[in-house]
Amino acid sequence: MGDDSEWMKLPIDQKCEHKVWKARLNGYEEALKLFQRIEDEKSPEWGKFLGLIKKFVTESNAVAQLKGLEAALTFVGNAHLAGKTTADVVSGVVTKVFNQPKARAKELGMDICLMYIEIEKAEVVQDELLKGLDNKNPKIVVACIETLRKALSEFGSKIVTLKPVVKILSKQFESREKAVRDEAKLLAVEIYRWIRDALRPSMQSINSVQLKELEEEWTKLPSSPPKQTRFLRSQQDLKAKFEQQSAQGGAESDGEDVEETESAVDPYELLEAVDILSKIPKDFYEDIEAKKWQERKAALEAIEVLTKNPKLESGDYGDLVRALKKVLGKDANVMLVSMSAKCLAALASGLRKKFGPYAGQVVPTILEKFKEKKPQVVQALQEAIDAIFLTTTIQNLSEDILSVMDNKNPSIKQQASLFLSRSFRHCTQTTLPKGVLKPLCAALTKQVNDSAPEVRDAAFEALGTAMKVVGEKAVNPFLADLDKLKLDKIKECADKVELSGGRKGVGVGGSIGAAAGGGNKSSSAKAPPTAQAPPKSSGPPKKAATAVASKPSSGPPKKGKAASAGGKKTPDNKEVIENQLSTEVCEELAAGVLPASCLQQLDSANWKERLASMEEFQKAVETMEKADMPCQALVRMLAKKPGWKETNFQVMQMKLHVVALVAQRGQFSKTSASVVLDGLVDKVGDVKCGGNAKEGLTAIAEACSLPWTAEQVVSMAFAQKNPKNQAETLNWLANAMKEFGFAGINVKGFINNVKTALGATNPAVRTAAITLLGVMFLYMGAPLRMFFEDEKPALLTQINAEFEKMQGQSPPAPTRFNKKTAASADDEADEGDEQDEDRGGQDIMDLLPRTDISDKITSDLVSKIGDKNWKIRKEGLDEVASVVSDAKFITANIGDLPLALKGRLGDSNKILVQQTLTILQQLATAMGPGLKQHVKALGIPVITVLGDSKPNVRAAALMTLQSWVEQTGMKEWLEGEDLSEELKRENPFLRQEVLGWLAEKLPTLRTVSADLMLCVPQLYACLEDRNGDVRKKAQDALPAFMMHLGYTKMTKATGKLKSASKDQVLAMLEKARAAIPEKPAPTKTGGEKDSAEMSRAASASRSQPLNDDVDGKPEVKKVRGGGGAAAAKKPAAGKKPPAKGAKDEEDKSGPIFIHVPNAKEQRVKEEKQLKILKWNFNTPRDEYVEQLKSRMCTCAAKWLLDELFHNDFQRHVKAIGVMIERLESERVATISCLDLILKWVTLRFFDTNTTVLMKVLEYLKLLFAMLNRENYHLTEFEANSFIPYLILKVGEPKDVVRKDVRGILGMLCNVHPASKVFPLLMEGTKSKNSKQRAECLEELGCLIEGYGMNVCQPTPAKSLKEIAVHIGDRDTSVRNAALNTVVAVYNACGEQVYKLIGNLSEKDMSMLEERIKRSAKKTQAAPAKQNTTERFQKEHPTNPNATFLRKSAQEDPNKLKIMYRTYRIQAGQNSQHSDSSHPSIPKRFQLDLDTIESDMGPECKMPELIEFNLDELLEPVPIPERLIRRMQSGPAHFDQLHYSTSSTINLVISQVASGDINTSIQALAQIDEVLRQEDKAAIMSGHIDQFLIATLMQLRLIYTTHMADERLDKKDIIKLYSCIIGNMLSLFSMESLAKEASMGVLKDLMHGVITLMLDSRVEDIEDGQQVIRSVNLLMISVLDKSDMTNIISALLVLLQDSLFMTASSPMFTELVMKCLWRMIRYLPQTITNMNLDRILLDIHNFMKVFPKDQLKKLKSDVPYRTIKTLLHMICKLTGVKILDHLTLIENRSESQLETYMRRMVKLYAVDGERDEKSALRSEDRMSKAMVSDVLTEIFKKIGSKENTKEGLTELYEFKQKYPDVDLDLFLQHTTQFFQSYVERGLRVIESEKESKAPVQISAVNQQHSMDSNMSNEDVQRRLKILRQRCGMENMSTGMGGGGDSEPQPRPLVSSAPPSKPSVPSSTDMLHSKLSQLKESREMYQQDHAHSPAHTHTRGSAQSMQLDDLMKRVEKMKGSWQ
């Protein structure tokens, strides 16, 4: 007992370790009690027993062991530290408990294992139990199997991983112990219960008797799926649900529970992969080619046996697939064909997705082989193609399928359709998009009409299956051509279809949206419970719960982001597109917004009046609203005579300044810009006006984008001869590039003009060009120099000097932005974040011309590189290096070179390895971004070289790796298993180099591929590597890995490490956790500087430096290593990032056109047979476009097809650019698709965008040059579908377009017979366009001169007669062209021309004879001219792309046209002998016309010049001198002073938005000083919007930049806030100035002020509370003093935006509504001064966006109540009259507002009778607005001479009908003369009426009958037309013709209806009025049929006149439309 007393006093933990078993037993008992008492799972008491729990279970005494197991079970279930003991405790249970004879011990051991699984340690438990299966003791094995079975039964197959269990299960059936076999059988039954037939393949290897017993047991299992009965700690929500169902007795669960518990196990995943490549017989490839079929069969049988393995190891199966494909396609023995098809099917099934790369090679062969009729062959082919389909997608196979759908063999068509039907069954709505389905449906609908019934049935089945999968609504648009019977059959087939996997599909009548909605609903229903955590759980379960909860939330943010990005793109961000308006419409629009005096004085002879007019013009523009400004009309008024020829520089300065104002303040379109650009360019070189012209150009660039503006301006400048204009244009462009940035600039387009400028004789032009190159160098870097290597050495020296000045400088950040893109720049930056951040600035490199070197990588060269002799291998590598260096920049197509170079990277000769690495660096520089597609083939082997033992080789490999990554980015390197496979190599050199490289690169990336996780096990292995350097590099890389993968994933990955290793790695992870680098910030909108800097640095590192100084290298390292590295690698700001992912970018590297044999012939045949629409139209209709698109989908890449048929013209430009780049490399495919390409080009001819047109013409020139080199001739089919439309463009107004079209027409004769071009040109001469007629005649003359009279088709006589007709044309250019063409005929056939042309008028014949005489004189100088031409040809060889220049207009046009034709003929002849291998860029301005002109001698002097009388021209010269002297008088000085004040205010306001705080404060102080003085505050009038916008920009700058900048003193920010708020308080204290604020500005102001109030950062700053209080006062001032209409409209729009934007704060919305409530309280006092029409329009728009139902669904009903209150108050205050204010709502019948208001009006009526009476009176009595409109129309008629009588009559009748209307109100603003005239006229009419009482009565009756017959709609329509004719407001602009000084009477209506958005054209109004007159005439004639004959005659004559007028109006409308 003494011994007992000793251990009884020991603590519990010591008792548990005592050597006496009784002491241990007592310790276990007390521990059990203690464990049951501890309530806190994190109590420190648990930690005392952490190391003892294993001893609890491994207790040697059987009695004590039972208590120990009970205590251990309690510990595991309650302690949060229990998870750390899992491996040790379970291992102890397996070895020491499962072998015990007591069943209780075994049971407790199992419970412990299951409890560990419950606390999220299933993997560890399962691993230990599987290890126990290898134990020699059968009891342990049986217990382990039983525990696994029990765990699976309770937790389910999602928790217990079945793959390792199934893997060892078959082995247990071979045990000698029956107990083991029986337990294995029970486990197999349990596994089958969960995964069903997925287990069968794994069990095929066991004994047949055992398998039969298993089968019997499996059949006894219930068919209902099993349910999880025990749950993890993180699954307590499922547990509660299960218990609830159990309590209710519901044994069955719904579909969601099944989905939650059932584990979809793929039997394929449970199998072990077999490597069959190593088992292929050595002589297989010889036997498969044997002549005897028996030998081939034996070879196939061997392969068939190997491929029967259900899962195959991945490898290179290319040779095997090719051998089987050859047998399949070419073997005559059908038995062997079947065998090869079976082998292919087995390969596809065994490899699955890994067979995908071979699918495209095999499927076409299988489809063609379906022509076999033997059933066994067809069945084998079907099985093969079905198996292959599962390895790829329908999208990848669609082209192959479509290519056989038109096959002549019905069996092929039938089987292709059946294959589609089977394939569709495996598709979903996602995997079967419309883009893929559309061409397939088009092909199937053709087969529905096939003559073969089996083909029709197969097509019906395929279409029915598609309908079942995607729904009827998705398929119906493609079936529009089918009749009802066929549609019914398709629906019948759809009903019969059963989809794979038991899916229901969408079915007939379903829609994609409905199915998607259902899926979202179920997922959302399941997501919330997952996020809930149990109230009591250990540490690991909490982490797991967090991970589970985070998964569902990871998806929606991306969608939300995309949605918000889409929502931000409002119509304001879109480019303004405007049609060209006629002069009359422009004058009418201008008259509506400009004073009448302004318009009258615009073209005054007095410069002072013109100056005063321009001042009024400017003032009107400054006060005009953006939406109301008719920009095109205004600039056309400015261009009106004298326009840009204005001689007074003050007027011209003002005019140019107004252009800039209109561009800045209005919605300025490219159409408007084209009106003024020519004038601006003409004045840009002027000393006095040049500054204003540049200001205008900059404003236009902001409105229409700099790239477009610059392209237009430069082309216009170089079309002139003024060197000053050219120089100043280039200077402006250089400065504009700095201000706007380089985004979107068409470098190739500018290079030609810059080269022209460099060759100019004027030094100023050359200097400006070199300066521009310097600016471009800032953005492009050294690659820019590549474009100018062929310049003269002296010029190159100057260019290099300019580049050296810029070396090391950074491009400035852009300060100006295009108005259309600035608003969406943030969206683009956000979208850019989703792209690969590791891309370098490659956009500039894409501009460089690249060479295809694939033809130089010959098989001989490849064999050299692989030769056994190292010297020959070196020669081959030297040749490759030479080819790459000569080409400089190459395409991605390098033939078989990658395979050859890959072999040399493993060369035994290290010198060759280094040389190969050098070549790879060359390739990186030369290939650029195209290198991405070679990363896997060539890049990964470079990493292998990093394991070389020689340091110099490793250094070269690392340099190569860096150069490749600069071009490709990191994405391709991190995808896949390649990098992890390299790290598996136990090479210390490779590991340390790769890990060091990853540690450097990973922190610079924002996102990485998920495949990076594959490298983590190797990283952990490197942490324990024997080499110290490897361990150090691995530790350095840990934070970089953790930055992207996260600590949780990295920790979870340690689960498979050994216990000792795991603890060590976890400690390192904890240490690295504190050193995780921050992810680089995304590029912002203004980040163009960094982007360009990186681009320039990268390109400088790739290219040869300009000199030997290498200072640029440290700069590159600095950029790369800094935090902004990733941002620097973004695309330049303003350039929209690619919308597609990197995967699509890889697809773009493939061919763009596909050569389909005989496809073109088939298309020609179908068009001849009229199976498709013939390509013949005046304007292309939609069916032509769709037909072309469907035709091109079979022979063009999908991405290119999307670009070609996109709505955005920029996508067209991009597509054409790619087509130009690939033209040479894809010559054969381009020629095979030539007819489709030319048809697409004709569609672009009907576009109005000049950029696209010029790009198309550039492509055509290169295309026809290539066709000429290939000796290809256009077919009739191609020519007739293209040339007529090209001829249309020869009449284009723009000279640059016409020049290019003429060049193309000249090249046409090289690829198409001139005799066939001639008739098409003759058709062109019949056009109404005089330019087209003239140009076509010129071309005809060229053809006759070049090819003789035989070219005239059908006969010379017929052709010449048609040409001679044009000699009498009204247009001078057409006459001259016709005369020149006839002269060309005269030169060819002499006097016979007079017979050919037939009879001409005397005048035409005399003109022709005179022209022939003059041409005869000029031919005497032919020898000299010929010599000059020959000398010119030697010095300047021509090429097919040369464009033709004409001399200025001062020279004789006839002489120029003759020179032009001569040059054209020479160009055509020389192009045939051109030996250039590819088309070169045309060299312009190289036609030495001066030399040619000097050789022509005295013939240049034309006798017509003598006819001019120069003395008369000199007479008016003194008059301008007197005007100039007057210009210096006093008033001009006053005007300059006034202009100076306005400019000063503009300057100060612009400084308010400065980024410098002090500058902004100073500017605000100056404005505040003005505002505080009442006498000076008036000068701010007209600048209020401008000032508020600048202030808002400053508020945004503070909010986004200054507040986040920790370097700035917050006191300065508070000071700036105080200045801003003080200024605005002063401004809004003056009501007159406050009311000038427009609605849009007020909306932005309220947004900015409310945002400031809600900014929590301001409150945290000292004095921040005072700022908030000041802001509150400011809001009250704004609400009180602003224009009530504008502020209420602004608040309504702001409320709408805040509700629409999901990211908006609820507080923000609440404050907006509070402001609205305040305005509602003001309504009784302010409603009389408000424009109710506009407010009701805004409420209508609000209700349109947020209908009543949607408003009620919001979280709060306050917005709904706010709008309701506003409407109630308005209706209450206005009553029934409010219904007259709905004039601005377009479709009132569709508006909810009108219905709602009518209800409220009735509600507020006094009683029903009063409502009824008022309604009846409202029908009889016109509203004031209507009275105003009708009277305005009547007074207009009175004021016109023609309609005075009619107007007076109408006024009299109006007065009779509405006697209560007071006409004095409408006459009081007119002159006394007009008033007396009206009164006198009324008296005369009254007297006439009295004298003709019967007539009067009949007339009145007639009028009354007309009125009574007129419907309410007619009245409304007529009133609407009258209202519109009177003007957009109810105010007239003039009397028309009623006198010189009488103004139009103005109605006095307090709230006139405001302007409507759209006004009908003047022809519509005239037509309507004529219809009314005609109708009244007819009715009058019917009532007076008994009148005398002369009256009838007069009436019919008038009716005829009206009919004639109406026809003419219709004709005018038709011509304008």
Description:
With 2017 residues, this protein is mainly alpha-helical. 67% of the residues lie in helices and 0% in strands. The protein is globular and about 135 Å long. The model is unreliable at 250-263, 510-574, 822-843, 1083-1146, 1420-1539, 1893-1911, 1925-1963 and 1983-1998 (pLDDT under 50).
The number of strands is 0
Q: Helical content, roughly?
A: 55-70%
Strand content: under 5%
Number of helices: 106
Globally, the shape reads globular
Structural class: mainly alpha
Give the low-pLDDT segments.
250-263, 510-574, 822-843, 1083-1146, 1420-1539, 1893-1911, 1925-1963, 1983-1998
Rounded to the nearest angstrom, the radius of gyration is: 44 Å
Mean pLDDT: 74
Q: What gap, in angstroms, lies between the N and C termini?
A: 120 Å
Largest sheet: none
In short:
The chain is an all-alpha fold. It is 67% helix and 0% strand.
Topology:
Blueprint: H1 2-8, H2 12-15, H3 21-37, H4 45-48, H5 53-57, H6 62-78, H7 86-97, H8 103-118, H9 122-132, H10 138-155, H11 163-172, H12 178-195, H13 208-220, H14 236-247, H15 255-261, H16 284-287, H17 293-307, H18 318-330, H19 334-351, H20 356-369, H21 375-389, H22 394-404, H23 410-425, H24 434-447, H25 453-470, H26 472-475, H27 484-496, H28 512-531, H29 539-554, H30 556-568, H31 583-593, H32 596-601, H33 607-623, H34 631-639, H35 649-665, H36 670-683, H37 690-704, H38 706-719, H39 723-740, H40 747-758, H41 763-780, H42 793-806, H43 819-822, H44 825-833, H45 859-865, H46 870-887, H47 897-905, H48 910-927, H49 935-945, H50 951-968, H51 971-974, H52 978-984, H53 988-1001, H54 1016-1023, H55 1028-1045, H56 1047-1052, H57 1059-1073, H58 1088-1102, H59 1112-1121, H60 1125-1128, H61 1142-1147, H62 1159-1168, H63 1182-1192, H64 1198-1204, H65 1209-1221, H66 1227-1232, H67 1234-1245, H68 1250-1269, H69 1276-1280, H70 1283-1289, H71 1295-1311, H72 1314-1324, H73 1330-1347, H74 1356-1365, H75 1372-1389, H76 1393-1397, H77 1402-1418, H78 1422-1435, H79 1453-1472, H80 1489-1495, ...
Helix pairs in contact: 3-6, 6-8, 7-8, 7-9, 8-10, 9-10, 10-12, 11-12, 12-13, 17-19, 18-19, 18-20, 19-21, 20-21, 20-22, 21-23, 22-24, 23-25, 24-25, 25-27, 28-29, 30-44, 31-34, 33-35, 34-35, 34-36, 35-37, 36-37, 36-38, 37-38, 37-39, 38-39, 38-40, 39-41, 40-41, 41-42, 41-58, 45-46, 46-48, 47-49, ...
